[in-house]
Amino acid sequence: MEKIEHIGIAVKSLKDSNEMYTKLLGTAPYKTEAVASEGVNTSFFKMGASKIELLEATQDDSPIAKFLEKRGEGVHHIAYAVDDIRSEMKRLKDEGFHLLNEEPKKGADNKWVAFLHPKSTGGVLIELCQDID
């Protein structure tokens, strides 16, 4: 793993949260994007070499909607940048971590993504991210 790529934060309203984070960070989001496969709208803020990703549910049965219902707004996941997502997935599986998906899938911000179950990572949802060439 190279670095923390971003911290994902579940929000009820992307519009309201974008306004608040713009004031907080002193900069507007550089990108907004819908990820239909995950049932979310996202926005990204740059923070030096890392990013903040805000996630708003677009479907009542999406993972973000379920998270918000159970826990409310707040930190949803930590994402780590990797060079080779498939080899990192294999390494982590061999180390005993539980992967939520067997193959990487296309995520937001032009990335391949895969997730590790929080039950195998001390209660933290971990996302692996690799740039799509």
Automatic annotation (TrEMBL):
Record flagged with keyword RNA-binding: no
Lyase found in the keyword field: yes
UniProt keyword list: Lyase, Metal-binding
Biological processes annotated in GO: L-methylmalonyl-CoA metabolic process
Limits of the VOC domain: 3-131
Pfam families, per database record: Glyoxalase_4
Family matches, as InterPro entries: Glyas_Bleomycin-R_OHBP_Dase, MeMalonyl-CoA_epimerase, MMCE/EMCE_epimerase, VOC_core
Alphabetized GO MF terms: lyase activity; metal ion binding; methylmalonyl-CoA epimerase activity
Family of this protein: Belongs to the methylmalonyl-CoA epimerase family.
Protein name: Lactoylglutathione lyase and related lyase
Species of the source: Leeuwenhoekiella blandensis (strain CECT 7118 / CCUG 51940 / KCTC 22103 / MED217)
Lineage: Bacteria, Pseudomonadati, Bacteroidota, Flavobacteriia, Flavobacteriales
